[in-house]
Give the backbone structure.
Amino acid sequence: MRQDDAQGDKPLKTRSGHGIDVAVQREDYLDGSAIRQIRSLIAWRGTARALDAACAAGGQARRMARAGAAVTAVDLHSDGAALLRAAADEGLTQIDFVQADLRDRELYRRLGQFDLIIAQRFIHYLPFPDAVDVIRLFRQALLPGGTLYLSASGLRSELGQQYDGAAHIAERFAALWPPMANKHGIHDRVCLYEEHDMRALLDAGGMRIAKLYASPFGNLKCIACLA
Ligand SMILES: C[S@@+](CC[C@H](N)C(=O)[O-])C[C@H]1O[C@@H](n2cnc3c(N)ncnc32)[C@H](O)[C@@H]1O
């Protein structure tokens, strides 16, 4: 079977043309960190509220619900019914799905606040200034002591081959080299990140980085708290 990255993920492309849904296939270290936070909140006070931002088919939303969180899953796509059916099939009832653009300020007024937000493999679909706005919205949507788990596609990953990454992060927004676009199912323009770009994003968004690392594939992964 064809596999799409160093982790052996299948080419399960999102229908929206926004890359591969990895979360539905496996849990990575960042997902696991969010799960550990949920477990400790549940052990401490019995409740936890989590946002799965850009949830695709809801793989991480279901893991977080299994760990005991009340989960809101948000994505642009309109297939929330399938996500909720998959959750109900395993007896998970604490999941809501909201079809929305994560750039929409009004959305956050409706959603309220969370102990944690996870946004994996999404932020690079936005031009950097929009990404900063979204991080600020995430910040406002976090309760005191809340945590953001964020990842972005890396300029030093294979996606960066033949990509126009020379521009400063504030202006960097270009299509992938066609072989990479086809391999990864990413047909929109993207902003690929280096470690210092991720630092600049979190800093501009008012978040303090607790941990920042690169995955084996070369993507940037970050755990951040309120600054
Ligand atoms: C590669 S998938 C990531 C899915 C999952 N979080 C994971 O880690 O595998 C990217 C998702 O971002 C969603 N997305 C892209 N832009 C968005 C936006 N502005 N608002 C909400 N969702 C968005 C797409 O619909 C797609 O489901």
Observations:
- The radius of gyration is 17 Å.
